[in-house]
Structures are given as structure tokens and as C-alpha cells.
Specification:
Helix content: 40-55%
Bound molecules: nicotinamide-adenine-dinucleotide
Number of helices: 13
Mean pLDDT: 94
Low-confidence stretches: 1-18
Strand order of the largest sheet: 9-8-7-6-10-11-12
Length: 435
Amino acid sequence: MSASPAVALDIPSATPSGGAEWNCELYQMARTQFQRVARRLELDDDEFTRLVEPRRSLVVNLPIRMDSGKLVNFTGYRVQHILTMGPTKGGLRYAPDLTLGQCGALAMLMTWKCALLGLPYGGAKGGVRCDPQLLSAEEIERITRRYVAEMHPIIGPNEDIPAPDMGTGEREMAWYYDTYSQAVGHSVPASVTGKPVALGGTVGRQRATGLGVVFALEAVLEREQRPIEDQRVAIQGFGNVGAVVASELHARGAKVVGLSDAGGAIVCPAGIDVPAAAEWHLEHGSVEGFAGAETIARDELLELACDVFVPAALEHQITEANAGRLRCRLVAEAANGPTTPAADEILARRGVTVLPDILVSGGGVTVSYFEWVQAHQKYVWTAAEIRERLRTQMRQALAEVVATSGQLDVDFRTGALAVAVRRVAETAKLRAVFP
Ligand code: NAD
């Protein structure tokens, strides 16, 4: 993402801090969304002030010995948005453009996501500003271990529990788990989720976010009485989330008419053979060039005629600049923050329904919660139990969003945020302010 322009944050008088450290595009978006719903729910100044800025953050410098023998500094972040809901939870992202403001925004979104799904956590986010593509496995291991050591004062199984996010996966979570456990002198499987199953990770975690997207989509289509087999779907991103969404929808008979990743995009109006495209992707590192479909320019995918568009790559993909050209009926936000507030307004005017990120992409953190519970209980659930509980939780959250959106006469994003913000504001009020 490009450097963000300085934008005045419009902090109310009740909040004397300037909040300048959060000043980036993504934080601005999260804040605008929160502000809209705060107005709608008529939160008072105290309630607004307690939730609008992250509660705690730590920025660390990680001096890392590179394979070349050179010492290089990397910046690591961890932001915890609210500490009143229980421990905090949120991903660990390794990305070349990561900033404190982005972590703050994503931590806030995690608070709403956890509250909406009824999980006993506040939101957090963190990571390291680095490009994992340019680093060896040994360098990434040293970065991960040093990050855990530096963050030790604010992390732990009852404090803050990370999970994979962009640029990290099971491998990094295994190193995280080992480093944390070494520091305290015994194994602490509840210190991190998204671990390999052999280390106490849960079955189903890897596919959980994508599966959650599909459960939410299925439930909405059921309400609309539209058979899933009639849906033409375009999916942006073919990583952890996008590839699972594509394969699960394909297996249910939906037509995946377009796919994209960082390398390019492909389309096939008759429906892409997703398993074959996945094999191609495995071999070539991108869906681009797949013989069973036509290759198009990457960003043309957003304008493809389809019923459902699933952004499953990056934030800020549907903006004021392109929202008028989307040709879908429904946007299911598998990525975090893919739609800007200005684009939301355009889509609403055009009658395009947006299923918001805090609902649709909640499957990952829900199954992470299942992993954390199993780690605390020292008891292992079956794949069928995980799947069924995830399905139930996604459908219940969707039903609440639909009901609240109807009661307040607002779009699904505002309805979802309203359910979540109400829960968090009520908890904060009951616990009151210390001292
Ligand atoms: P990933 O790194 O596994 O995959 C990202 C995909 O997006 C890759 O296929 C990449 O090539 C593609 N991509 C990158 N830039 C692109 C572009 N400009 N156009 C099209 N494709 C592009 O990441 P992921 O874990 O699948 O996460 C994707 C999104 O979902 C992120 O917003 C993440 O925060 C969100 N999310 C992930 C999880 C999870 O469990 N992994 C949970 C909740 C939300």
C-alpha cells in the first residue's frame, strides 16, 4: 500500500490525545466505520472514547543476523485494541509495508469480529515489517523467535494469543510456540493458534476461514432462496482463504467464473475446473496461464459479470474509483477491509449487497478459539465437531446481523458492527473505568 496522506482524525474533545500514530488509510477506514455505527447506536462520548483507539501497543526493533553475516534491523509491532473482553487475539502479519496504524486498524476489526462471533476476546494484530519472499527460512525463523522474545511482556495464553495472517502460517506458529514455551520452561500450546496438528493445532484450522466464508454465503443464499449451483462466483486471491473458498464452492456446484492472484487473473464463463487450476497454481506459483481458462489483466477481475464477488486478497480493493463498475449482486468480504466507506455508499446506491468482513472472514478466529479451548482443556475434538460448531456459529452470527440490520434499517456492515459494538460497549460499561 502507498504511504498514507495525513488526514485529520476528528477526535472529539473527550479524547485529548491526537491519535497521530494511527493516522493511515486503513485506520481511517476502521474508524469511520466505527464512528458511523457509534452514531447510529447513540453511544455517549465516554463509550466512544474508550473504544476508538487501541489500548496498548508495543513497537520493537529486531536486530537480525542475516545469512550473509550482516546485522539488519526489522521493526515488529503488536497492538491490542481492548483488554476488557478477556485476552486479546489476532494475526501475525509479515509484510513489507506493515505499519503501526495498519495493526491498530486490524486490531479494532478483530475486536468487532470476536464480539460478533461471541468469542471471549478483545482484538489484536501484529507482525514484522519484512518481505518474507526475500528472506530464507532461517532468517524468518530468527525474526519470529526474536519477535516472541521481545513481545514477551504482553503476550501469553491468557494475555494475547496470535495466529497466522498474511505472510505467516503453521511453520511460524510452531517457532512461536517453541520460543514462548522455552521462555517459561514448559510447553504452552494455548499461547498461539494455527499450529501444526502434531504440535496441538486443531484439525480444520487451515481451511477454517475459507469454510466460514462458504457457510455464511450458503446461509444468505438460503434466505434469498437462490440455489448455490446457480451462482457465478469471482474470487480475488488464491491463498489460504481464496483457494479454499474456490474449492468448496466448486464442490457444491457453484460456477467459479474468475480467479486472480498477485500474478494475474483467469476467467471462464462456463466455470473454471478449480482442482485443475489449484494444481497449476501449485506448479507455477500463480493461476495465470492456466490452460483451461482465458487470461485477463489482474484488476479486470473486479469488473467481471458474476453473482458473487469474493475479495480474498488485500485491503482497499473496492474503492470509490471502481465501485461503480462492479458487476455482481453480492460482495462477500473474505479479506479484512477490502471495501472503503466511500465504495460502500456507491455499492449501496447500486443495490449491491455487501456481506461484511467481520462476519464473513470470522471462521479463522472461531476455529482458533476452538484450538485454544482444546489446548486449555487438554482434550481433542474431531474434525466433524469442529466443522459443525463452525457452521453453527457462522449461521448464528449471520442471523443476528440480519435481524439487527432489519431492526435498525441499515446495511449488513452497520448491522454487524452494531451487534459487536453493543456487546463491547456494554462490557466496558459494566467493568467501568479504573481507577
Ligand atoms: P495469503 O497470503 O495466503 O493469500 C493472499 C492471496 O492474494 C495470494 O493468492 C496472493 O497472490 C493474492 N494477491 C495479492 N495481491 C493481489 C492482487 N493485487 N490482486 C489479486 N490477488 C492478489 O493470505 P490469506 O491468509 O489468504 O489472507 C487473505 C485475506 O484474508 C487477508 O485480507 C487476510 O487478512 C484475510 N484473512 C485471513 C485469514 C486466515 O485465516 N488466513 C483469516 C481472516 C481474514
